[in-house]
Amino acid sequence: MFNIKKIKTMQFLAKNSIIFIFIFGLYACTKEPENTPVSVYCSIINEKLYSFSRLSDFEKTKFDELKKLRFLKYKNDFLEAAQTFDIEWELLAAVAFQESQWNPNARSATQVKGMMMLTLPTAASVGVTNRLDPIQSIYGGAQYISDLKSNTDYGTSSGDKIAFMLASYNLGTTNIKNAINAIDKKPSEVTWLDLERYLLNLKTSMDSENYSRGQQTVDFVERVRDYYYLLLAQNCSDS
Question: Is 163 domain-assigned?
Fold first, then answer.
């Protein structure tokens, strides 16, 4: 779960130059179109990261289309907001896609709005005065994720901590803390699998006949992970 470490392309190439020179030499001796070491590396990374995703081909295609139609307009804002609050821009953008499909005018029946689908209390806590302003929403969402990251002091790995943070974004920090405290382990020993099992068995007044609120949170975390992987893969090719 979120256990892939981002690789800086040029640093990776510098450490593995002999391997890539060899690969490049093999490609140069074929009649296929010439590929650079970077493109060969990115092709491998793309294949591996895409293989981790459980999204359907239709969902991946829709993601790619909306990335071109909507995301590119705000990419620099995602990069700047993520840098300002010291989080990964791919994670911030993945949350935004899961929340609104990068639609700045998105609304829900529960009155959450905007690119990051912030509630009124959350928006107020991070200084957002207009949730439908995409820049305010992106920066507000980035600050909120950063705050959640700072306040997540349980879990056995960095991947668990990211999953807990995302669960808190979706279900609320108090609900997640209560869930973790209800698990028969020390908070520092609780894993995402422990919390996932608890949430899937959680019964709330918000449950429908076929879909529980706990299941919704689990799905949110898993789908953000899938979109995060896609953005990591595409970032290599775009850079």
Answer: yes
d(CA 175, CA 167): 9
Measured between alpha carbons, how far is residue 213 from residues 31, 167, 207, 219 in Å? 55, 11, 5, 10
Rounded to two decimals, what is the model's pTM? 0.81
Q: Is residue 1 part of a domain?
A: no
Q: What is the pLDDT of residues 108-117, one digit of tens each?
A: 988 899 999 9
| Catalytic annotation, pick one of 32, 65, 80, 99 | 99
- Any catalytic annotation for residue 99? yes
Helices (H), the chain: 9-15, 17-28, 37-52, 57-66, 72-84, 89-100, 120-125, 134-151, 158-171, 173-182, 192-200, 213-238
Provide the CATH number for the domain around residue 156.
1.10.530.10
Whether residues 38 and 136 share a domain: the answer is: no
170 and 77 fall within a common domain: yes
56 Cβ neighbours under 8 A, 6+ residues apart: none
Query: What pLDDT was estimated at residue 36?
Result: 57
- List the beta bridge partners of residue 118: 113
